[in-house]
Each structure stands twice: as C-alpha cells, then as structure tokens.
Amino acid sequence: MEIKGKVIQILPEQSGQGANGTWRKQEFILEIPGNYPRKVCISMWGNNIDAFNIQEGEELTASIDIESREYNGRWYTNIKAWKVTREESSSPNVPEEASWPNPSDELKTETAAEDFDDLPF
What we know:
3 helices, globular
C-alpha cells in the first residue's frame, strides 16, 4: 500500500536491546492533503532510518505495511515504511498552458482523420 503526503514532524529515534540484539526505530508524521488533511504516524526500523534520510517539509510517497496486534485485551496498530520515494517537483519556469493540451486541437485532428477515412466502420 502507498501513502502520499508532506512530512510535518520527525520524532526522536528510539533504540533498545531485544532478544535478537539491538533495535532502532524512528517515527515521522505524514500529513495527507485533502479537504480535511489527515496526519499519519509512520515508523522506520533499523538501517531504513539512514537509507530513507527523511527531512521535515518534503513531499514523499511511503510504501507501507499495516499490522495490528493484541496485547492484554487491547489492540495496537503499527504502520511501517519499507520504501520511500521523493515526489518530483515540476519546473516553475514552464507556463501552465504548455503542460495541458488544448481539447479543441484533439477534436480538429479526429475530425480531419474521419473525413479522409474510406473504411465503412
């Protein structure tokens, strides 16, 4: 599953000792745009913290896994990022009309092609 948004906060890194050795975890808050923007807390584990190198304010797409588990009758949900890609920024020097085709040009081309078509269908 993928989720797109803007990084609005990076929480402090946590670490500790477990049965399998030392572990590292860092969470970040991603704001998802819309009429009512939502905030999602996503965690990164181990070497992904350094590999992703997430910065506040950047737009990105996070590929995530969602998992819930039960502990003492309560359910806890974790959202883990396993891949992060940065959003490509559009060039500010490109005029707006250059990025969108004119629909009337497409109609003229289609009509011209139909006038010279000898096929019955």
